[in-house]
Fold each of these.
Amino acid sequence: MIYPLAGRTLLSDIEGILGRRNITLSQHRVCGASVLAPIGFKPKASSKCGPGHGLMELLVPDKLYFNRTAACKVHDFMYEQKMSRDASDLLFLYNMNWIVEQKSKRRLANNIGHTVNKIYYFFVHKFGGYFR
């Protein structure tokens, strides 16, 4: 998976940012999906992710086309732990794309899922800091 702005693999960018902070990633099973998360990750019992209320819940749905709740829970954990915002947001994109890859083997579905993920990532990266 290539991050289009950097031209490098997305995962290597994430690991580089987190590695400078001595944070290691490991595989976790969350909400039925396999995702990467920092060691020590513990998902909240709540089913809500992100802002989780009002207008923002409509603008940032966790289940549009593919269920992104697992990626969202990791992202929320990283924000709560005050980990790097760039790494948190990039890992969010990586996990969302990985969920799409796990859930569908059809090219059209994957393309739609990845496009939705990029749009979702853009809004989270631009405006997510306001909810930190």
Amino acid sequence: MLGISILLRMVVTFIQEFVDRQCVLEKKGIFGSIASGWAMVRTNLRRIVVLCLIMVLIMVAIWVAQDMVFGTFVVPIGVATELVIPDPTLASVAGMSVLGCLYLPWRFGVEPLVTVFHFNVWTLAYLALQKRTEGTSNTAASGGSSKPN
């Protein structure tokens, strides 16, 4: 059941990324954006799946980097606070406070950049796929020839 819900969420995410951009960039209504976004996803499914897999790999790499950075600080800070402060409760509070101070630059510096990167990638993909789709429809409408007269 969990696998089905994950798969369903991925499909909805594919469509949502393009529906959002249809609504904002093309200034279409909600239902028009849903129809246009679904049509774009349907015609470019392979490219969108590849892009989504690349984005998943990038996000996993960022999570691993985050865990490596903060994982290297957890044990030394924990040991240092236990050595300096004999009370385990106070040592835990002090250690978590230090880790929290180290996490703030990540939270307010790196995570916003990752979010901007995510939105830029999907917006640029939308614009490229839209241009590609328009080029295909123009070529088909002109009789299959893409050469100028």
Amino acid sequence: MSNQTAPLFLADTPALLAALRMSGLLEVPEADGNSIVNEAIQAAVVRFYRELTAAQIQTLQDTTFTPQPTSAAEAKRMLANLTEVRLVRLYLLDTVDVRFADANSGNRTAWNAEAPLFASGEEKASMRAMLSTEVEDAFSILSGKTELAGSAKKTIRSSTIGPCNPNYTATVRKPGGTVFPAWPQLYPLIEGTD
């Protein structure tokens, strides 16, 4: 692991692997998984430099990490550490299965003992969405666009639901009606009309 890219905020690569629950890869230094993890670390470093200025990154690095933050600066440093782990995990979700195309049994044994990323396609999509949201929120705080104290405006995401009954049109409105599309076909039973 002599060619490993160093994490920006965690102490070193072994600390990052421990945070990812993948420290078993340290026992197999020639494993393909190490190059995949290194690539994920590189992608995370590049993403930090895309989202934050070099001065912001330096300020975070200059702040001593403490597991018990007592100031906003220390809390932001902790958030930077957590974001780095989440970013690497996010990148590994897309690449982790690739290494088994030509993996030897030593790689597979180490991976099976440590893997935090076993999941079905649906579970991975859910994890990816959750991690992406957490990373975006963290970058908003780390860049100063959002206050750490929670004064950020929350976004409400919604979508429209089309009617279940093809004969029902959105222009039909009845007092005491509902927004749920299945209910219009039950109006005669409920209201005693039609």
